Amino acid sequence: MNSKINALVIGAGNFGQYYARIISKLNNEKLSIPLIDKLIITRTQLKRAQELASILRKNADCNVNDIIAAEVSGTNELIEVLEKYQPEFIGITARDKVIGDTIHAVYSAHALKYGAVLCEKPFANATGDGSSLKYFTDLFEYEKTDLFGLELPFAVVMKDIMQKKDLADLFMNAKNIEFYWETMSSVKNNIIDMLAVHPWSLIPEVYKIESVKVEDRGLMAQIFMNLFNDKTCKNTICKINLKAGGNFRGIMIDNYAVAISTNGTLIKLIEMNKPVEDTPREGLKELYGKVLLELDNPLKQNIIAILKNKPIVSLRKTYDSQLFLERLHGFME
Fold first, then answer.
1. How far is the C-alpha of 167 from the C-alpha of 159, rounded, in Å?
2. Taking burial as the number of CB atoms within 10 A of a residue's CB, which of 13, 165, 226, 290 is the most buried?
3. How confident is the model at residue 282 (pLDDT cuts 50, 70, 90)?
4. Under CATH, which number does the domain 4-152+301-328 receive?
């Protein structure tokens, strides 16, 4: 018989509501994870949390004993909620008006004392001086517990890629890898902080970054990297193209072109019959071609992995992602 736990979602707004919706339905499935007893959702305004709680309770597929709304607008209120409900799963999706995404790092340090944590990306704001890396000092005592994970959807895609020999061989033996990553979302701070970790998470872990150069043009950026493959002892040239105002995502692996299609929670990797550079992307709505890989709902997979204490993006990998962002802003190790 599965044990029962309480789950907490901190900051159930734009992203956090998806965490809450998924968690509220998990008991309907036969999974080797604890059953969710109470789901606690928080916002900085209690009324907003209560509104979402009311909506979730009315869903026919909601299957938790209770959904509780709470207000958390700072560390003291977070600690009170953690103490009161003793959650064994904590999803951290909040964003602070003053310290921005660094609230993820601050809240994670407190939440890990109570249970497993799935943290929204990025872990913290990168400044280029390496100061965001200090937040890992206390967290690394939890490294062997597998209680922490970073929510990177395309890390789930890479996990599946590495289980398909043909695709894995393409990445592992590539001389050149080039990513094209566009977004229709508004860029609030800079496009590097917003997008760069997504294509980065599609670089196999055997590759180490030897050098990195950035050309930032505001709504466009290019990242040039020299990678070293620890397994083959060969170098690979990697380029990441970031752009606002488009919806295309794709990869050139040497001369092999792959498009990334997202439709709701469904992600497909599609073989293209021409190089990415030759593909007209304005007005692009649908992609056609051989489907190389298909997976659904990477957020759900990340949540389940944390509940199994098998994070897809480990604490060490999270550190690597933060170091990558710091290096893009000029930090030198």
1. 11
2. 13
3. low
4. 3.40.50.720
Look over the chain and give the mean of its residue pLDDT values, rounded to a whole number. 93
Q: Residue ranges per domain, the chain?
A: 4-152+301-328, 154-296
When pLDDT is cut at 50, 70 and 90, the band that residue 288 belongs to is: low
Q: What is the SS3 assignment for 85-118? A: HCCCEEEECCCECCCECHHHHHHHHHHCCCCEEE
Query: Would you state the structure tokens that stand for residue 48, as one six-digit string?
Result: 């907003």
Nearest to 41 by CA among 24, 58, 29, 25: 24
Q: What is the mean pLDDT of residues 99-106?
A: 96
Task: Provide the percentage of residues in the chain whose pLDDT is more than 90.
Answer: 86
In CATH terms, the fold of domain 154-296 is: Dihydrodipicolinate Reductase; domain 2 (3.30.360)
Considering only CA atoms, which of 3, 13, 9, 42 is closest in space to residue 23?
Answer: 9
Classified as helix, coil or strand, 124 is: coil
